[in-house]
Amino acid sequence: MSRKWVEEESRQWVERGIITEEQRRQIAELYPYKRSIGEKLPVFGALLVGAGILTFVASNWSAIPQLFRLLLIVLTMSGFYVFGYRNEERGAKAFGISLLALGVITFGAGIFLTGQMFHLIAYDARAFIIWSLPAILLAWMYRGRLLYFLALVILNAGQLYSAISFQQFSWLLLVLLLIGAGGYALQNRQRVIFTALTPSILLHGLLYLIVENQAIGWLILMSAILYAVLDWLSDRQARIAGQLGTLISAFFLDVFFIFFLGEMNNEQAPLAATFFILFAGAFVLSYLGKRKHSEALTLVEWTIFLPFFYWKAGGDVMYLLILFVFSGYLLWIGHREEWSSKVNAGTLLFLFSTFVGYIQVAWGFLPKSLFFLVGGLLLFVLNAFLQRQRHKRLRDEGKGGSQV
């Protein structure tokens, strides 16, 4: 519930003598105001100013003497760090964190510009490894989500760069992700942090499979194991948020199988015996964790991990069915638990599932104009249905509030 809704409803409770004005104030204090866009303006302003400075320097880089280039990098980076530290100490946390983030960005730009200046050639991702260290360190020091997300971007970009440019997988980047970013997530246990962490881990897993020419189906097993491990987290919100990121990643992997399963041969599937032994072990681990937290009902989420890629003839149809089952489940459980992020995710995934199914069924035999026309009408119908469900939920919440 929002602070505004509580304040409006609680006035009626005071008028009807259910609670006193002092109790109303205490209840309202339990629901803090959401941060307004005005509080985020310094962050965007600092990012734009930093981008302008870096763009100006890059465009005039060749005209600047080498000594002044080095001084410019050091002074700019130091300035961002010093002013960021001072603002954070004075209480302007958002502005200070944004300046520290610009210091990290400038440090990374300095690494690559210095390498270009002295014609240094790298044959691995060590530049990104060095770049990620201050981002991780500052995220731990200042507990800034912006710094945490910046560290994730650097680590993921470094692994992508290593895989694409050198056909190598950097184990050190993975270690930094698990210990640096993963440790930070375990310490802070915020939903958005865990939701972003798990897809990053799976991205590294995907790149490992690509570099080592392994079957993409192993990524389903990685997702299942990660999901099972998260079942043992004691913090419920962090556990659900991390698993939501894992489930959504597996959802889009299922979409991949829908379109490309027919083009895969038996050699591109994981070794069945090894896969099913590990899969069964992960399921048992997950079941024990869910039983410990009295959440056995959520075992239905394991449907998204089912390895239908072994079933060449009807695997794509089963995956399409799973998309609808899973997105419908998210909608249902989100309404049941009044968890807006699950409702929103379920709504978007249900729409996406419908779109995927429509492409699979209709693209081959409908005229293209009719294809888009029917697709648009279908989206209008789905939107009307979801809006109706939303209004019904709001009415139910209003009735529940009036009965307090």
The number of helical elements comes to 15
**Rg measurement, Å:** 25 Å
Number of beta-strand segments: 0
The H-and-E topology, N to C, reads as: HHHHHHHHHHHHHHH
Which shape, going by the Cα principal axes? globular
Q: Decide which structural class fits the backbone.
A: mainly alpha
Strand content: under 5%
What is the helix content? over 70%
Please mark out the parts with pLDDT under 50 across 5 or more consecutive residues, or reply none. none
| N- to C-terminal distance | 14 Å
Estimate the mean pLDDT confidence. Answer: 84
| Main sheet summary | none
Structural overview:
This is DUF2157 domain-containing protein. It holds the Pfam family DUF2157. The structure is a single chain. The protein is mostly helical and 404 residues long. Among the domains are: 32 residues, no CATH class; 127 residues, no CATH class. The chain contains 15 helices and no strands. The two termini are 14 Å apart. The model has no long low-confidence stretch (mean pLDDT 84).
